[in-house]
Amino acid sequence: MPDKKPRILQNGQDMAWSLIPLVVACLLIAVVAQSCSFSPGGPKQGPIPSFDAEAAFKYDSRELGFPIRQPETPQGWTPNSGSRSIVSGNGGGDSSNIGFITEAGRYIQLTQSDASEEALVPFIAGEPRYATGTEQIGDHTWDVFGGDGVEAIWVSDFGATRILITGPAPAANFTTLATAVGSVQPLQQ
User: Fold this and answer.
1) Domain residue spans in the chain?
2) If phi over 0 gives left and psi between -120 and 50 gives alpha, with beta otherwise, what is residue 175?
3) Cβ contacts of 15 within 8 Å, gap of 6 or more
4) Domain 53-182 falls in which CATH fold?
């Protein structure tokens, strides 16, 4: 006589008893790894990473072959990231990127580059964008690129440098950053 139950006699209760050890093992692994938590109110914002934007602006102004501006950002804006990249393609060049978290917790990125606008916008956007208008901020005209469901991009020509602003921040933050960039002289190289 076989020791196993016939397949017809196996039911949901047998399935539950076999899953219980698997669930307990998964919970033990999660507790040991501390990789999950229970948050009934939803996710909470963690600390903003620290980034020394002043040092990055100064370093990029010495190392890159075009003028770099260090804008005065409003109180409550925290620099959280920075990078340098090479804009590929015809009209490409170097770029300096500094990200900020606004007082409302929204991200906004400032990119300064010697690449052409035609090369810089698709490089930063990662997908085609279309001009949707312009904004006049101080002495500079900013070309606005956007569309439905995409982050806005503002670009202005500052002579040897193209300045680009992007991110999910509201247009008022774009205006604030564009005003701050336009009101400062380039750092000494």
Assistant:
1) 53-182
2) alpha
3) none
4) Phosphorylase Kinase; domain 1 (3.30.200)
For CA atoms 116, 97, 125, 107, give the dihedral sign: negative
Residues 6+ apart with CB under 8 A from 109: 97, 98, 99, 100, 164, 165, 166, 167
Find the mean pLDDT for residues 1-27: 75
Can you give the pTM of this predicted structure? 0.77
- Strands of 162-166's sheet in order across: 78-87, 93-101, 107-113, 162-166, 153-157, 140-146, 130-137
In DSSP notation, 23-49 reads HHHHHHHHHHHT-----TT-----PPP
Question: For 48-75, how does the pLDDT look when each residue is reduced to its tens digit (9 = 90+)?
Answer: 888 999 999 999 999 998 999 999 999 9
In the DSSP assignment, the letter for residue 2 is -
Tokens (6 digits) for 160: 């040897």
Q: Of how many residues is the chain composed?
A: 189
